[in-house]
Amino acid sequence: MKKGEKVLLNVKPQYGFGEVGRPAVGDEGAVPPNASLEITLELVSWKTVSDVTKDKKVLKKTLKEGEGYERPNDGSVVQVKLVGKLHDGTIFTKKGHDDEPFEFRIDEEQVIDGLDRAVKNMKKGEVALVTIQPEYAFGSSESAQDLAVVPANSTVYYEVELLSFVKEKESWDLNTQEKIEAARKKKEEGQCAVKFIEYDSAFGDEEKQQSKMLKITCNLNDAACKLKLKDYKQAEKLCTKVLELDSRNVKALYRRAQAYIQLVDLDLAELDIKKALEIDPDNRDVKQEYKVLKEKVREYNKKDAQFYGTIFAKMNKFEQVKSASGGAKQDPVPMTVDSKA
Fold first, then answer.
1. Which of 229, 287, 230, 228 is nearest to 253 (CA)?
2. 314 to each of 116, 306, 319, 327, how far by Cα in Å?
3. How far apart are CA 221 and CA 239, in angstroms?
4. What is the number of helices (H) and of strands (E) in the chain?
């Protein structure tokens, strides 16, 4: 339907109240069983609902359309009015409704992740109702906020108005020196800096060297974070990027070995640790990780021995049964394999 459109709907019982009908409710009459319905319908308006995170865990319902098409990017400074509520309507925070709007910078963890992502998808002047599941809100722990405590595992609701924003300058709008300075600043702030210097073909020799060192530092820092977050695959990829720039980087070899151990790529972990010890034989962290690796190898060898021991025991039992029966045809002994071994 289009806005303002009026229609008459003829609805068959299976799409209405079916075989049971419906009793009278207040001023509305009863609907008998197996009744066809006639419904007059007018589409007055609608609200746009968008799935911000593509997993239906942060939903944004637009209550008032914003201006133009521009939206904030990472690093934008935004000014908003917001009210945060629990499912029962309890207000746990209210900001920007006094003299000054509430101001924060996108992608700097100054607000919860779901709110950060939702505001990044808004236009100037837009008013939206944002529904945020616990994974993108306060998680599995209770959190004391300005006006109330948010219980653990709470879905929260924000009404947000984006008053204004100042966009961060995009990396392609910066000259080469500005890119290096921006990357250095982001590195110091603990944020993603590599995007500013990822493409350095226009850099001079000195700028390329500065860019290389920043890429190494940023990717190593990011890899350390990914290890803490148990994202071992991404940590391995980041360390590999560093080693493509500096094949003898001990930190990259050490952290990639840590990732490999958790991913149970023990042979690759051993190669990285041995190479790191060739470069820096006295590195205590690498030596300690070698002990961890050896313990993992012993652990998995023990599991393998138990696994194959079980298999061979069942095979021997089968042979014994076969011999006892004088070679007569028997149904085979069922064998089960523990896939977790």
1. 287
2. 58, 12, 9, 18
3. 10
4. 7, 11
Tens of pLDDT, residue by residue over 267-321, are 999 999 999 999 999 999 999 999 989 888 888 777 766 666 666 666 666 666 6
User: Phi and psi for 144 in degrees, rounded to 5?
Assistant: -75, 120
For residue 109, give both structure tokens: 């963890």
Query: What residues does 102 pair with on adjacent strands?
Result: 80
Contact indicator for 235, 255 with CB cutoff of 8 Å? yes
pTM of the model: 0.49
If one counts the domains in the chain, the total is 3
Are residues 156 and 186 both part of a single domain? no
Return d(Cα 272, Cα 285) in angstroms, integer: 13
Q: Are residues 145 and 42 in the same domain?
A: no
Is 306 contained in some domain?
Answer: no
Residue in the structure block whose two tokens are 């746990």 = 92
Backbone angles phi, psi at 23, to 5 degrees: -70, 165
Residues 124 and 158 in one domain: yes
CA 96-164-127 angle, to 5 degrees, is: 70
Q: In this structure, how many other beta carbons lie within 10 angstroms of the beta carbon of residue 63?
A: 14
* Residue of higher predicted confidence among 177 and 49: 49
Beta strands 58-64 and 49-51 are antiparallel
Do residue 193 and residue 285 come from a single domain?
Answer: yes
Contact 168, 75 (CB under 8 A): yes
Q: Do 269 and 234 reside in the same domain of the chain? A: yes
Residue with tokens 């219980």: 151
Q: Residues, the chain, total?
A: 341
Nearest-angstrom CA–CA distance, 151 and 130: 18
* 335 is a domain residue: no
**Which domain covers residue 7, as residue numbers?**
1-21+35-46
Check the CA dihedral 239-241-247-249 and report its sign. negative
- The answer to whether residue 131 is domain-embedded is yes
- Dig out the tokens for 188 from the structure: 């110091």
Query: Per the domain annotation, does 259 fall within a domain?
Result: yes
